Structures are given as structure tokens and as C-alpha cells.
Amino acid sequence: MAFINELKMLKDQIKFDKRFDINNDFDNIVISGMGGSGIAGRIFQEYYTKKPVFAISDYDIPDFINEKTVFIAMSYSGNTEETISTVEQAMKKNAMVFAVTSGGKLAAIVKNYIEIPSGIQPRSAIGYMLMPLFNTFTDINDDDKNKAYTTLNNMDQDHDYIKKEAYKIYENSYMPVIYGSSPYSWVAYRWKTQFNENSKILAYSNYFPELNHNDTMALKNTYRKERFIFYVFGSKKPRITQRINITREITETEFNVIDIDSDNYLEKLFYLIHYGDYISYELAMIRNIDPMDVSIIEELKKKLD
Amino acid sequence: MAFINELKMLKDQIKFDKRFDINNDFDNIVISGMGGSGIAGRIFQEYYTKKPVFAISDYDIPDFINEKTVFIAMSYSGNTEETISTVEQAMKKNAMVFAVTSGGKLAAIVKNYIEIPSGIQPRSAIGYMLMPLFNTFTDINDDDKNKAYTTLNNMDQDHDYIKKEAYKIYENSYMPVIYGSSPYSWVAYRWKTQFNENSKILAYSNYFPELNHNDTMALKNTYRKERFIFYVFGSKKPRITQRINITREITETEFNVIDIDSDNYLEKLFYLIHYGDYISYELAMIRNIDPMDVSIIEELKKKLD
Predict the structure, then answer these.
(1) E-assigned strands of B124-209?
(2) pTM for the full model?
């Protein structure tokens, strides 16, 4: 499948209606996943805070995990070695183990797993990873999903304005810096990873207000400032908006604000995700690079065997 | 006080023996702090996992906080608005509230606080912020502290090798990229923030194995690769060491490995922290920039009032 068609599948993933079969007697949730499969746990953790949620992206699990822990493993392929390692540890501690995967070893060792379609890039399956979390633990409803669907459908029809942004990066060989804010801080990280994997360029993210305690001091006098492009997600929180405006003013930095006029969490979430997907995809096209190519990661995995 | 003398105080902070007066009947720990005061919670969270620990750096607290939550506010000045906002919310939920501060509003509203000396930069007080956490919740002992003290004392006597590293950055106007790994991933972030605040240059961090799922794809063909310098913390974990070596090889990237031959967590922790402190300080000196100057952050705070 052409990569752009993978992107266009995202809107349908929002309607993915699977949920985990979980009773309410649990103390905390641990979500394990790496890279494109790990980002779902991080985004969810920022939104759902009724119980402690930990998103981990490493080999080992925290000590506190026990039989009252809901442990959810996310691995598109089902064969990510770090994720498998955490699942095996969580099983030994008798956690309630669940998974989202298209198959692989994970499907073989976790009884309660949600199967998702195979054949696309793991990072293109972010909707399949996110929705079971929202369906199970939150009151996000069909109305929210329809709003998000419509917005994504519009972007799929015409994203020329995003293509122009990508061209700006190409023309200037910019390094993208993406600044988010709650509850979308981790979407900024998603953009970073999409620039890495799709466009094959370095990028990084941070968020308001934390960045006002570090990045801000560098924004005026850093080396080669003209080589960075700054994307900032708009916020409905007055204090954050103030911080964005004042930071721009006193550091004399051009902020490219990415925003949608919506009070709907899910709609804005998927809008921001999709924007990052398209901009990194279009940049790959302009650079004449295959956005699907992850041969370096494949080579690494092979050498690790 | 000259900034270098603040750095030299770090070794004495390791012997700071204060602890929180906490009984064992708690469900989770939430540590709130921004920037230089927030990093302690993040480093601690990566080391201590017997109970769920959340490090937050924002205005709001998670919903799950209740009377069984140990809530620790960290603010050097005691007046950080985000941190004060979280404390007020935590108090309303009857959490067990503690603080580490040199005074300010925090000392006025939190009864159980640990007072630390005023008069230095918040980011130079990282030992004062970390040690009460270690003293209270872990079995880190005097032997560990003595080892760390000795190592830092040696660095204070002679850090010419670090000065040379700083000069390399200056000569090439590099952007530092710092790659850590567990349990030192957040020390890589500490380096980033020190480059921001002391040297006034942009920098970013990531960690193994997560970066093998994103940065790695960009390392070969990113724009202007010759403008980045990569620092990688050595690891005693064979799988991580393998990942470092293979990543270097297949992406053809020069990794500057920062390491100390020690199996002692605390010694290596403070070694890595201090290395980052010095390199960012020396770079400021060479750039002829005042590492203490945070006037932009001060200006921002003023405009926010």
C-alpha cells in the first residue's frame, strides 16, 4: 500500500470499537510499547488520570506491578523485543495482561489481545492503538468520534496548506522543533518521531510551561537559530496562550502555530496527529525519500539477533 | 557567588541528610517541580519503582491524587507559579503534602517542608532536591555517598578534559544531542537543560532503546549532520551496549561516550550530572556568556504577572 493511503486510513481507525475486557478492580495501568507503538500509551496517560497510568518504553517493568495492575502491551508486529521482555516480567508478577497487536509472539503469549489489521507501518496504526484505551477507560463517545472523523476526512481531501509547510522545511533544511502543551504534549513528540521515521531528519519536542524553564533561555542566542523552525500547538488555556505569546516576543522567535478551533479533545488530538503525519510525509516526498523505508531499524534488529 | 563555586558545592549536597517524615501507609508518590527543580523527581522516578511515582512539571495534578498520596513539591525559590498551583490542588484533595524549598510561598503554605540554603541558582541545588528523596525511600547509604563525594571532588580538582569537550562544541557551533539509558535517561535531559540555561544553546536528549525506534532512522541522512555532536552515556547492560555500538556503526555516527567505571548508582549518577554541569559551564565561559544569567526567564515571569 502507498504510504499516503496508510495515512488516509487513520480516520477509519477512529471508529475502531474494540475494548479491553477489564473489571474495575485495579490499582493502576501500565502500558508498554516502543516508538510508533509506544506513543499511544503516552498520549493516553496525559488525558486519563483517574488512576495512575505509566507508559514505559524500555526492557524492564517497575517493581510496583502486581495482580492489581492492568498491564497493556502494544506492539504492532507483536515481536518487539523490549515489549516482549516487559510482558514476560508482568506475567511473572500476575498482572492482568492485555495486548494490542497484529500477531507475532505477543498474540501467542497474551490470551486477552485485541487483533488489529496487519500490513501497514506500525506508526500508521496509531488509531488502532489509541481507541481501545479510550473505549475502555473514558467516556469518549460516537459524537466525538464523528467530529474527529469529519476533520480528518477534510484533511485527506485537501492538505495543500500542509504541503507548503513541508516545502518551507525543505527549502531551508530546517530542523523542526515542536512545542506542545497539555493534553497534547506527547503529540509534539509524535511529530518528532514522524520527522525521524518518515522524513529521515532529526527533530525534537518540548512543551509549555516546562520549556519556559530551559529552551526559552537558549531561544535568543543559540547557534544557527535560522536553521530551526518552531511549531507550536495552540492552546485554549489562557495562561498557556500568554506564555506562548510572551515567549515569542521576548525571544524574538517566529512560532508557526498549529491549531484548530475546537473544544473537542478527540477532534483536536487527531487533527494534530494527522497534521504531523502529512507534513513529515510530504517532506519525504520532496526530499525524494521513501517514507516507508525503515531499513536501518531492520538492519539494527538483525544485528542484535 | 561565582557560578563555578556553586558547581563545587554539589559534592557537599550529597551529604545532605534531611528526610521526609513519612509513614509507610501510602499508595503513590507525586513529585511536582519545574525545570531545574523538577528534574530531581524525574531522576528519582527512574530509580525507585517500588511504588508508583509520578514526576509532574505543569499546572495541574492528576485526578487519582487522594489522602493516600505522598505529594512532594520542589521549588528552589518557593514561588514557582506552576508548582504552587499543584500544591493548592493537592491540599484540597487531602494528600500528604511535603516540600523542598529555600523559602517563598511554598514555605508559608506547606507545614512539612525541608529547608535548603538560599542564594544559589535553582539548578545548582540538584543535590539538595535529590537527597531527601533517596534518604527517605531508598537504602542508599553513607558508603554510596562517600564514593560519589570522592568522584565529584576529583572532578572539582581537575576537569580540563571536560573543558576540552566544551571547546569542541564552541569551535564547531555544534548542537549537542545527549543519549542516556536507564536508570540515567533523565540525566541526559538534565544535560539538555544545562546547555539551555548555562550555555544558552539549544540541545535535546533521548534514550536507548527508545531512540532506536525514531532518531536512528534520521541519523544517517539528516540535514547538516556535521552540525550535531552526540554524547552517549555508557551502560553496564550488555543489550544497551550492543545497541549503542550497532547504532554507531550502521548510522556512521560519531558517539562521544561519557562513562565512569563504577557499579555504584549514586556515584555514576552524580558523575554524569557533574560532567554536564561543567561542560555547559565551560562552554558559557568560552562563549563569553554569563552562565548565571536567566534574565529572559525573569522577564517572562514579570510579563506574566
Answers:
(1) 175-181, 204-208
(2) 0.97
